[in-house]
Structures are given as C-alpha cells and as structure tokens.
Amino acid sequence: MAASAGSTGASVEALEKLGLIGNHSYGLLGCVEITDQYGDTVRLFQLRNPWGDFEWKGDWGDDSDTWTDMAKKQAGWSDADDGTFFMCEEDLLKYFSRIQLCRINDNYRYSFFKARHKLNSFSLIRFQVSAPGGHHYLTIN
Question: Which of 46, 68, 104, 141 has a CB 3.0–4.6 Å from the CB of 29, allowing a cystine?
C-alpha cells in the first residue's frame, strides 16, 4: 500500500514546512485506533518516507504533544529517525491525494485497454473472461 502527498491544493512549500514532500509516495504501513488524552478514539495511519528521513511534523508526528504514554503503547510508537511516522485520518485526507493498493502474484496475467469518450457522455464497454475459474480483478479508472 502506498500514499501520495501533494496535488491537494497545499503548496510544495507548505508541505515541506509540515515535513512532507510534495508529489512523493510514502509506504502506508498500517492503521490503528488508539484512545487520545481526552478518551476519544482516533484512527492513526502509519506511513514511511522511503528515503528514510524528512518526517511529518504535525499532530501525531514523532515530536507531537498529542502522544500520551498509553497512546504510544497502543500504536506501537517508537522514536526512531527512520522516516516512519503516524498521522491522523483527517490530516491524511487533507495532505495526501491518492492511496494505492497493490496485489502481486507472479501467476497473474495482466491486460488492459484504453477507452476514451466525450465529456458529459458515457461509454458502454463489454468484456468477456474466457479463462475458467480462478480470481479475476477488474479496475476502471
């Protein structure tokens, strides 16, 4: 799983002040629900900058005051300078424009085609799967 920062209306300079790199992909390592200092449930996403540095500086970042000892334990938090950080769902949706899920299997057969249509119209696409049984995945973008 991966998440891409940028293309959300936040400028590259604004993202950098927050510890994010614009138009850059981060590994999405997991999601956990924790209890914050007020007893509310917060959904946190754990992300990793593959460059190993330049981490999120906002709420739930490594140096954030939002962490309690209990929340750190619930999330599996560590204070390593490794590019890994936590971010709440609201900030993820604000600063990341895309989340990708990828399934890899060496036995998969991949095929695609592009279809274009005029604005404010629709296209009808008919396809047929000729392989018997098994798993089939269809993606439309």
Answer: 46
pLDDT band of 9, cuts 50, 70, 90: low
Task: Please give the biggest Cα pair distance in the chain.
Answer: 57
What is the reported pTM? 0.69
Residue 111 burial class via C-beta count within 10 angstroms: exposed 0-12, middle 13-18, buried 19 and up: exposed
pLDDT digits (tens, 9 = 90+) for 36-52: 989 999 999 999 998 87
Residue 132 in domain: no
Strand-strand pairing, 96-100 and 84-88: unpaired
| Owning domain of residue 84 | 2-100
- Domain with residue 78: its CATH number is 3.90.70.10
Is 106's pLDDT higher than 80?
no
